[in-house]
Amino acid sequence: MKTLTVKIPSTVELDESELLLILASKLYEKGKLSLGQAAELAGFSKRAFAEILGRYGVSVFNYSADDLDRDLENAKNYSV
Asked: Who has greater pLDDT, 59 or 25?
């Protein structure tokens, strides 16, 4: 794992654990980390992290609307 030092203004009232949670949530949302990797970065189990994601407006299901539309169309084409 890389070590990163970040300087933030003292007016930002966030502790290290909350910053890690925000970072992990965003990296998961962007598809840069898996759910397990993001959970590990934030210091939570996968289940706990998945539950916390909603607080940050991040869906556990990292699935775009286009992907869903495409899958629904494929399902229609293959239905019996």
From this structure: 25
In Å, what is the CA distance from 6 to each residue of 2, 55, 62, 72, 80?
13, 23, 27, 43, 56
Across the chain, mean pLDDT equals: 88
Instruction: Reply yes or no on whether the pLDDT at 35 is more than 90.
Output: yes
Q: Which residues of 7-31 are buried (b: 16+ CB within 10 A; e: fewer)?
A: eeeeeeeeeeeeebbebbbebbbee
| 3 state SS of 70 | helix
